[in-house]
Amino acid sequence: MTATAGVAACDASELQRVHRALRTLSASNRALLRAEDEDALFHEFCRIAVEEGGYRLAWVTRAEHDEAKTVRPIACAGVNEGYLESIQVTWADTLLGQGPTGTAIRTGKPSVIQNIQTDPREAPWRAASVARGYGSLLSMPLRVEGVVIGAISIAAPEPDAFGADEFALLGETAEDLAFGIETLRMRARHRAAEETIHRMAWFDSLTGLPNRVQLDERLHAALDEAKGANRPLAVLYLQIGSFREITEALGYRESDLLLQEIARRLGSFDAGGTLARVGDDAFVIVLARGDSEAARGLAQRILASLAVPVELSGLLLDARASIGITLYPGHGDDPEALLRRAAVANFQARQTGQRHAFYAGGLDSECTRRLALMGELRRAIEGEELRLFCQPKVEISSGLVSGVEALVRWEHPRLGMIDPGGFIALAESAGLITPLTYWVLGAALRQSYAWHSAGLAVPLAVNLSPHDLRDPQLLDRVRGALATWGAQPDWIAFEITEGALMDDPGGARSRLAQLKDLGVELFIDDFGTGYSSLAYLQKLPIDSIKIDQSFVGSMASDEDSAVIVRSTIEMAHNLGLRVVAEGVETHAIADQLARLGCEAAQGYCISRPMPVAQYAEWTAGFSWAH
Fold first, then answer.
1. CATH number of the domain at 387-406+432-620, please?
2. Secondary-structure percent of the chain, ordered helix, strand, coil, rounded to 5
3. Do 57 and 134 meet the contact criterion of CB atoms below 8 Å apart?
4. Distance CA 308, CA 525 (A)
5. How far apart are CA 371 and CA 390, in angstroms?
6. CB 42 within 8 Å of CB 60
7. DSSP tag of 406
8. Which segments within 440-487 are labelled E, that is strand?
9. Across residues 48-60, what is the average pLDDT?
10. Could you give the CA distance from residue 501 to residue 524 in angstroms, rounded to a whole number?
11. What pLDDT is recorded for position 369?
């Protein structure tokens, strides 16, 4: 053979090797798109390398962090014949760790043996390798999320197989596989977080029973069915006696155990309905086919069961309770009325020393009071009884105030200062929530104008309800308010609860896009409680999310909450969003949030809600000791 022919043959051989690496890379990338789990991806890669790439053997190993630093095969394809099972490999810096696999894991760099028969590093395994027709070996570290978790190894039948081009292509394949694994793990974390969010949104974490949110949905459905079938329905409201005293005497751990035992006993009754936990010491049972006799019989059986003491900490604790009962249609025909009146009946039972009682209040005084308050709230919105409060948000890293949330209080001439919890739901049921929102919008811009005049340039965030998003005048009112005060869009921001978005996803998305076109900043408030999907979030023109305080406040003590907060921050950053944590009450939680990369915090460790007139003095004296 002439020199020219030899060069040509060499070039052709090299080209074939490049082509097999290309086939391996291309087929592996296709497999990445279909992969559902790591093990399946590893096995598919090994098959591709052998069947489509033409390599002699391909295998994937995992680096164990035991004392011997073992290397464990987890997938392989090709001519194995017991090879991987018979050899000993470690990633320690010992004789058995000098091969390409151990070296790649230990150093984090690719390692190659071009000639198995002559390379001294292959000595411990040479005979087994030659017997199976391996000529050269290449191992590449599998680096996932910055950590080498194992190696991908390939054996070629010929020596001097892995030239520069083939080496580069196989290295790219290893990097793509590592990225695929990272993606699979991120998806798994997000699935786990969403499942946890769903569980926490619909179920009580202590007892595993449906919570108040799910109870409301189930009671609505049960009432619709009862109305359609023209049959009665019963609601039993159960409250544990002396629960507060037990908690104070023995602590939360023992009281939690007591609640779990009570939930177990209640669950043993097949009532043909729903059992839910609705408060610290309260449970509700919906008897879907219950008349007064069925409800009374169930209440008596439950009370007999709870009369048996519960043994905790060597003590026999009294688990007895009282039960209030309401009936559809006699005591009401909507879930709120039945639940409220069942609680009233429970109170009546405790006041009279009975163990159970049926509601006997007719149109009770509470309804009359609520009707009176509705009229008074309308007057308060139109008059001078509402007061604008605010609560600052602080950048965790710098301690600088990044914004404040506008809040409203009602200074009732007879009842005194009423917090939002006492009248927001009332405003919604009376059709007054949107006028209330517009009052807050005008008051916020009036205050923002005063602050800007005094050199305090900080945006005020106004909350929008589902009713507000559906109001056709919303954009005109916002534009008009901005024009009235000569305000720029960055003077205000809007916060929309996740639940409000999920009430009407399509309409909410359209309205948010219109608000965004005005140039204002948009937040999703109470994130984690509305169970929105990642796909839906990607379509929203939002800037930041606020993690609900129910998760933030317990993240230091509850692993589920910590997982949700960590996953939410990671997800938000992947979507290019900033994160504000609500309910930050301690600097320890602020430290934990800082480590997770959360940008801003809002809560009592920064400031309680304050009248807007106090903000200038507060910010002048504020120092972030975090």
1. 3.20.20.450
2. 50, 20, 30
3. yes
4. 45
5. 29
6. yes
7. E
8. 460-464
9. 91
10. 9
11. 65
Contacts of 180 (CB under 8 A, 6+ apart): 32, 35, 41
CATH class assigned to 14-190: alpha beta
pTM: 0.50
Under 8 Å between Cβ of 161 and 136? yes
Element (H, E) at 593: helix 587-595
Mean pLDDT in residue range 84-89:
88
Given a contact cutoff of 8 angstroms between Cβ atoms, the answer to whether 489 and 520 are in contact is yes
Task: Give, to the nearest 10 degrees, the angle between helix 243-250 and helix 252-267.
Answer: 140
| Nearest CA-CA partner of 135 in 6, 17, 12 | 17
User: How many Å apart are CA 472 and CA 254, to the nearest integer?
Assistant: 53
Instruction: Report H helices in 35-163.
Output: 38-51, 83-86, 100-107, 126-131
Q: What is the DSSP letter of 210?
A: B
Residues 6+ apart with CB under 8 A from 477: 438, 441, 471
Is residue 346 within 8 Å of residue 237, measured between CB atoms?
Answer: yes
Interval 427-459: pLDDT, tens: 876 778 899 999 999 999 999 999 999 999 999
Spatial distance between the Cα atoms of 420 and 408, rounded to a whole number of angstroms: 7
Choose among 327, 317, 265: nearest CA to 290: 327
Query: Which token pair is 521?
Result: 């900043």
Length, in residues, of the chain: 626
DSSP notation for 320-347 = -EEEEEEEETTT-SSHHHHHHHHHHHHH
Q: Which amino acid is at 130?
A: V
d(CA 575, CA 479): 29
Of 2 and 580, more confident: 580
Copy the structure tokens of residue 406: 């506008």
Boundaries of every domain in the chain: 14-190, 212-362, 387-406+432-620
Mean pLDDT of the chain, nearest integer: 87
pLDDT tens digits, 313-338: 777 777 788 999 999 988 888 889 89
Domain 212-362 has CATH 3.30.70.270: yes
CA dist 321 and 271 (Å) reads 18
What is the token pair recorded at 189? Answer: 């974390």
Question: How far from 557 is each of 35, 562, 570, CA to CA, in Å?
Answer: 35, 8, 20
Question: What does the H/E/C string look like for 29-55?
Answer: HHHHHHCCCHHHHHHHHHHHHHHCCCC
Q: Say whether pLDDT at 184 is over 70.
A: yes
Nearest to 584 by CA among 574, 569, 570, 594: 594
* Cis upstream peptide for 329 (omega within 30°): yes
Distance CA 32, CA 557 (A): 38
The SS3 of residue 279 is: strand
Helix (H) or strand (E) holding 547: strand 544-547
**Residue matched to tokens 């196989």:** 170
Q: Is 499:197 a contact under the CB 8 Å cutoff?
A: no
